[in-house]
Amino acid sequence: MAGNARIDGTRLWDSLMAMAEIGATPKGGVRRITLTDLDRQGRDRFRGWCEAAGLSISIDTMGNMFARREGRDPAAPPVMMGSHLDSQPSGGKYDGALGVLAGLEVMRTLNDIGHVTERPLVLVNWTDEEGTRFGHSLMGSGVWAGVYPEADAGRWTDVEGTSVQTALAAIGYGGPQKAEPFPADAYFELHIEQGPILERENKAIGVVTGAQAQVWYDAVIEGRDSHAGTTPPSLRRDALVGAARIIERVHAMMQARGEDGRGTVGFLEVVPNSRNVVPGLVRFSVEFRHPDDAELDRLDHEFEPAAFEIARSLGLKLQLDRLFKFKAQPFDPACVGLVEAAAQRLGLSWRRIVSGAGHDAVYVARRVPTAMIFTPCRDGLSHNEEEHIEPDQAAAGGQVLFEAVLARADRKA
Amino acid sequence: MAGNARIDGTRLWDSLMAMAEIGATPKGGVRRITLTDLDRQGRDRFRGWCEAAGLSISIDTMGNMFARREGRDPAAPPVMMGSHLDSQPSGGKYDGALGVLAGLEVMRTLNDIGHVTERPLVLVNWTDEEGTRFGHSLMGSGVWAGVYPEADAGRWTDVEGTSVQTALAAIGYGGPQKAEPFPADAYFELHIEQGPILERENKAIGVVTGAQAQVWYDAVIEGRDSHAGTTPPSLRRDALVGAARIIERVHAMMQARGEDGRGTVGFLEVVPNSRNVVPGLVRFSVEFRHPDDAELDRLDHEFEPAAFEIARSLGLKLQLDRLFKFKAQPFDPACVGLVEAAAQRLGLSWRRIVSGAGHDAVYVARRVPTAMIFTPCRDGLSHNEEEHIEPDQAAAGGQVLFEAVLARADRKA
């Protein structure tokens, strides 16, 4: 019975470790930035494993890689799974790679037990999930799902002026297949939580019900630099005092929403940044997230006038650019139900959870019934070379993925 | 009568412009960082002018340059004047250079009228007033006055590991004379105000009565970086929120002192500084200044526990290093009186003022009766390529310097 098969946790772990060799950093992390030669090496290794597993590879014009295992009904919409192999500049071994390599492990396990699913299976490595090089996260899945026009994305450039198209061609991963949605039955993505909730509650599995709504801003607040020793209080226009008050406001607005609120200033830069000069200009980022669209709207509508009032009261000029605003993305209840049923049947501890981070699944969900599986990571740490998970945590996530995918791929139409 | 002589404002201005050619920046400022080859070029030009004016040059082991004009009584303690020729990385044409070149103009004017003062005159170019390269401002005057031990200062290094000693030797300005105080009758320093007070009150001359007390800190506040999307409020340890509250507190403490208070966070750096990461660490500077020692003590004593309480309340770790604490430095009443009398006699508008910035005069004042003369600068702007003064403002300051120096150098013992 395929339903009782067990994935090979050791083989999954070995694949994770082998992938982590490519771009390994001295501190135990990974630097495998999208569409670099290291990314090419990772893709080549993944492609070799897929071919050895008898999967047929196709690549689309955004470099998204699709590895297909045929079903009994080749015309049926496939069940998809996957994630991404690119990393943050100082990233960990598991962010992205776990979902791709657990998908590979699902394929290998089905080979081992000689089971052919009713529907085809397609394992995806999405291009440039991290967004660290070309400035747009979830690029490959975003173009695929129609969020970004492909013509735009191809022209995005990195800091050195290299375009996405040029970078794809340089590593030989610009494929012929158009980057667009095809009919698919479902999409499942396994990912580390990148947060502390599962670990804190000692849960093996997060049954992800959807992703938070988000709004991101870029802010520039401007006063006037002047000598810190000679400029009296009444003549100061200190941009950093303005930024500090906005940071405090963002924090207070988050706290007013209880544990579901998220409000963060993560990036901040002071000009001229000299200890005896009153700061004349500060650039910073602001973001809010919330599982509920209406609450995010309230955050958005409350923030802008509050920030402008802070600037005005200090004689500062504020420029606020809303980079984007996403609605919350609920996942497909049937797919979520399969993940939950698998965790339950396997006797794993689990809880429902809302994804705080963005994932390829969030864009794919606009086109295909989707669910995600989270597994814990140590101290909730991610986007960090010290990101860490245990082999049995990876195996538990991989087993839930296997069962959810199989349930969907073999279900009666 | 020497007392009725007028300095040559055009010659002074031409010298300022000629000096500003060395290290000129495209935006009209100056980048002439201490002990670089540009500093050497500036020193060489100054030396050439001094020699052409018949002054004898001596150089001490810290590179301080002394240009002497003999008096009728060569054994009498000299009257000193001067400032510095080094600049900020993006500095202006007048900060420092005005005091040195106005001193040169005093010498040239005395030559023109053929007047020999009773006491010798010594014009000084102090090494590294700005402190931007080796991390200690007022270095040359500080060593001379015994504030910094010379053995320590010689070993201070820049970011590339070059020591002060090595840099002095490289530009050929490590002299044989020991850097230590010699008996001197007085020291006068002309400087732009670097603040907006004189301009705002439409005064030509600031009669500087002393310098503010100051305390400077380096702060590091540490929480934990974590994913901005996944970390709930209760689990955040956001170092930037802590820094923001301390910035607000510094501002409030300044404002509570009225127009005499100064409190500034001018430098701040966020780690990892990524828009979707809750900041784990922030480094920043804090400084307070006040004309009154007792009030500065109160600021110092109030700040430390307040900052630690802010950190504690947010679960953050704060490290606070007091870099230095200076007492207020009153200038010599007799010297201050000569400056005031000169401004008055010349019919210039003037006011008494406390220096907000540090100046070589503040250290020299520990050893020699000292006063300073301020002239306005446009919008109070300094440490900025747009620093600007008018020729007649420079000439007025130079004339007051001339008269004060002459009154002291020729006074009966």
Give your account of this protein's structure:
The first copy, chain A, is of the alpha+beta class. Chain A has two domains: 2-212 and 328-410, Zn peptidases (Aminopeptidase, 3-Layer(aba) Sandwich); 213-326, Alpha-Beta Plaits (2-Layer Sandwich), CATH 3.30.70. Chain A has helices at 9-20, 37-52, 97-113, 139-144, 150-155, 164-170, 197-200, 239-255, 293-313, 333-345, 360-364, 391-410; strands spanning 56-59, 65-69, 79-84, 121-126, 186-192, 205-211, 213-222, 226-227, 262-264, 268-271, 277-278, 281-290, 317-326, 329-330, 350-355, 370-375. In chain A, helix 8 (239-255) runs antiparallel to helix 9 and helix 10 crosses helix 12 (391-410). The model of chain A has no long low-confidence stretch (mean pLDDT 95). At the A-B interface, strand 8, helix 8, strand 10, strand 11 and strand 12 of A face strand 8, helix 8, strand 10, strand 11 and strand 12 of B.
Brief synopsis:
In chain A, helix 10 (333-345) packs across helix 12 (391-410). The first copy, chain A, has 2 domains: 2-212 and 328-410, Zn peptidases (Aminopeptidase); 213-326, Alpha-Beta Plaits (2-Layer Sandwich), CATH 3.30.70.360. The first copy, chain A, has helices at 9-20, 37-52, 97-113, 139-144, 150-155, 164-170, 197-200, 239-255, 293-313, 333-345, 360-364, 391-410, and strands at 56-59, 65-69, 79-84, 121-126, 186-192, 205-211, 213-222, 226-227, 262-264, 268-271, 277-278, 281-290, 317-326, 329-330, 350-355, 370-375.
Series of H and E elements of chain A: HHEEEHEHHHEHEEEHEEEEHEEHEHEH
Poorly predicted runs of chain A? none
Q: Profile the largest sheet of chain A.
A: 9 strands, mixed
Going by CATH, the homologous superfamily of the largest domain in chain A would be Zn peptidases
Note the overall shape of chain A.
Answer: elongated
Oligomer: homodimer
CATH fold topology of the largest domain in chain A: Aminopeptidase
Give Rg of chain A in angstroms. 23 Å
Terminal CA distance of chain A reads: 20 Å
